[in-house]
Each structure stands twice: as C-alpha cells, then as structure tokens.
Amino acid sequence: MPELRMTDDQLAAACVELGRQIAWPPAPDVRAGVLARIQARPRRTPWWRAAWSPRYGFAPAIVTVALALIAVLVFSPEARATATDILRLRGVEIFRGPLPTPSPTPSRSPGSIPSPTPSPALGLGTLVTLDEARARAGYAVVLPTDALLGAPDEIYLRAVTNSTAVSFLYKVRPGIPLSADAGVAAVVTEFGGGTVDDQFFGKVLDRDTTLERVVIDGEPGFWIQGKPHFFFYRAAGSTGSVEQETLRLAGNTLIWQRTGLLVRLEAQVDKATALRIAASFR
Amino acid sequence: MERARRGDQGAYGELVTRYQALAARVAYVITASSSDAEDVTQDAFVKAYYALDRFREGAPFRPWLLRIVANEAKNRNAAVARRPTVELTAAADRASGETALSPEAAAVASDVREGLLAAINQLREEDRLVLSYRFFFELSESEMAVTLGVARGTVKSRLSRAMTRLREVYADA
C-alpha cells in the first residue's frame, strides 16, 4: 500500500470512524453468571490486601521510567507545535469540495417511519442518571430549561479528550421534527473546557450548509444550518489538541461556549429558537 | 458504585449490565475469540467484585474494570499457550436507524478502511490494544493510564509509537 498521507489527527479521526464500523461479536450477557458466582461466596475484606497490593506495584513504575525518555523525545513542545501548524495549514484540505458519496445504506429507506428509540450507534456513550452525570462529568452540568425541550428522556456519558461528554437526548417533542436518520427530536451535548475556532469550521461545510457566527451571553458560538456531519474543536488542557466530533443528527446545530463548557444543540429548529434554548441553560 | 462497594450485589449486577458489552470487546481484541471473550468478561467481573476493597473511592470504575479484563484476557492467552490471530472486520452494512455516515466514514469505508484494519490486525498486541482503547473504545488519556497501569505521559508515547507502527505496517502491506 502507499504511505498513509494523513496527519496524526486525521489518522486518529479515521481510526475513530473505523472503530464505529467494526463488526464486534454480539455482546454477551454475563450478569446472571457473575451474580451466581459472587452469591456463592460473599466478599470479605482482608485489610492487608486493601493496604498493600504487590501485584500492581512495580511494573508501572519501571515502564514509566523507560518510556518517559521516549515521551520526552516524541512529545517535545517543538514537535507538538509543528504538528498543530501542519494541521492548521493543510490538514483540513481533504475535506474541501463536494462531500464523498455516502457508503452503502447509510440511512433508512425513504418512507420508513423514524423509530422513537434511538440507536446505540448514536455513540453518545453510557446511559446514566442525571445524578451520575453530575457526579462523573468533572464540571457543573447545565441543562436547558426551555419548555420546548422540557426534561431530557435519556442522559449519556462518554469520555472525550481531557474531558467527559454529557449528552441529553430528547426523543419526541411537539414542534420539533424528528431527525430523519436518528429518529429523535434533539440532542444536547456538553463537555468541559473545549473551544471552537472558525478557522476549523469553514473547511468542513459543504455547499448546502451555512455557518454563522453568533454570540450567546457574551460568549462565541456558531449556528450551522443544513447538513453538517462533524466539526473540529480544540480540546481542554494545556496541549489543546484539535479534536473531531461527529454530529449525531447531521442537521441544524448550534455550538457555543458557556462558562468553560463547550455546548451544542442539535435539533431541526430555526436559529431564533435555538438561540432561545441556548439562553435557557442553567 | 458505592452500594456495590459496600457489598450490594444487586448494585453490582447493574454495573455488570452497564459495562459488559465494552468489557467483552476489550477481551475480544486480546483473545480474538468471542467465547473466550465471554468467559473472560465473566471472570473479570467476578474478580473485580472481590477486589472492590482495593478500588479507590471516587475513582472511575470503567478503566479500573478494563484493566482487570485485559489482564484476565492476557492470562487466558498465556494459559492456552496461544498467540491468537486477531481478525477485526468492519461491518459490511449498517442497520437502518443508525445515523448517516459522516464524510470521513464514507472515505474510511473504502480501501483505506480495509488497509487500516489489516494493519491493526497485524500489530503487536500492545500496539493494537493502545489504538483500540483510544480510538475504538474512545477512552480518554487518563482512563488509558489507569487501564494500562502507566503514567499519562507514557500513554501519549505509547499511542504515538503505535500510530507510527500502524503507518509502517500499512505502507508495507
């Protein structure tokens, strides 16, 4: 094969997409088996085991020392800076021009009724309660209070670079058309510390998708109307790597920064409604 | 999690339900056998239950569990003295109801996808695992540090090295 003509970020994005297409074996159900085994032998608490676990003690330290040397070489600030510049200048070019032809059967057949049950392939992560989301997000989770959305039907949690993404799923809402692909009304996703940058946006849009800069509560945002599929943002943290996020509904999307969070609303509503919902976050 | 730590087996059952699919995939990446992956998943959850005292309060459960899963899976490979031939394949088709493929997905769906998969299958277990954790299971770097039992800086260097090898194997194919 020829060499891969991709930057590391592009290769990473390709691998993420690849991962979503892997044919995994069906998930087993081991719950009953596990419970039967642990019920047969109740857990005791040997204090010395809790205090001292030689099994995990040594290896990490040795490996850390050995590989720290490599880390210094590979991840020197110069190397990182160069990589970022390349991405800025050239990395996004592969997305210019018309969008590639969608692969076989990416969406439902015309005329079929969108299912009100979202597919796990929305890739929002693990289903959690609001309390769990608040406990595990690592930042103060905010929710829209606008009556059009009301309370979310489901809440999901997943890890993103240097943060945790919390997603709120709104299945059916009067006044919001269901997404043709995902069969849900709206998805709100937030994570800590990321920033958006218009230099990343212009390149990822096709002819039918428009981009508009907006300001919400004095902070920057973008209104994307049409069929956007993904966007780039700068991750939280000192390295600020450029990350790619897939838009789950591939429809109108509002992305904005809000007191240290990066929030996005995906719903087939007009701009004024989206801005109103965005202003209702508490 | 807290209830499970205090010995509530029903609460632990909920954790099993929540994480078993991911655990089985991690085991599958290592054992290359769905039946072994299922056994490993069950063993790992049992082992994790008895190790809950060692679990630091407030720490994330997922990476800690996956570390136990990976160890179990490697032990199983060693026990049967086998070097498994991993064969991850891409789904030919997506069921209706899923979201449309993004432009990259469509691009990756073609020859690059096959080439990347073939290359990943050929990588050493350690490299394949690092790439899988980061890109297939989308673990954060801090989660990977826990799962691999290394420092965060080491995660970065391992990932970088695995990507370099991926490029090499891809180009050599």
What does this entry look like structurally?
The complex is a heterodimer of chains A (282) and B (173). Chain A has 282 residues and is α+β, with helices and mostly antiparallel strands. Chain A folds into two domains: 1-11 and 55-94, no CATH class; 117-279, no CATH class. Chain A is 28% helix and 22% strand. Chain A has eight helices and ten strands. The longest helix of chain A is centred in the N-terminal third of the chain and has 16 residues, at 59-74. Chain A starts with 7 loop residues before the first helix and ends with a helix. Chain B folds into two domains: 1-85, Rna Polymerase Sigma Factor, Chain: A, CATH 1.10.1740; 88-173, Arc Repressor Mutant, subunit A (Orthogonal Bundle). Chain B has helices spanning 2-5, 9-31, 34-50, 61-79, 103-108, 111-122, 125-136, 141-148, 152-172. Chain B is globular. At the A-B interface, helix 1, helix 2, helix 4 and strand 2 of A face helix 2, helix 3, helix 5, helix 6 and helix 7 of B.
Question: Brief description of this entry?
Answer:
The complex is a heterodimer of chains A (282) and B (173). Chain A is an alpha+beta fold.
Topology, pairings included?
The complex is a heterodimer of chains A (282) and B (173).
Chain A: H1 8-21, H2 31-40, H3 47-51, H4 59-74, H5 77-89, E1 126-128, H6 130-137, E2 154-160, E3 163-170, E4 186-192, H7 198-201, E5 210-216, E6 219-225, E7 230-234, E8 242-246, E9 253-258, E10 261-267, H8 271-279
Antiparallel strand pairs in A: 1-2, 2-3, 3-4, 4-10, 5-6, 6-9, 7-8, 9-10
Chain B: H1 2-5, H2 9-31, H3 34-50, H4 61-79, H5 103-108, H6 111-122, H7 125-136, H8 141-148, H9 152-172
Helix pairs in contact in B: 2-3, 2-4, 3-4, 4-8, 6-9, 7-9, 8-9
Largest interface: A-B, 90 and 83 residues
Q: Main sheet of chain B?
A: none
Low-pLDDT regions of chain B: 93-99
Number of helices of chain B: 9
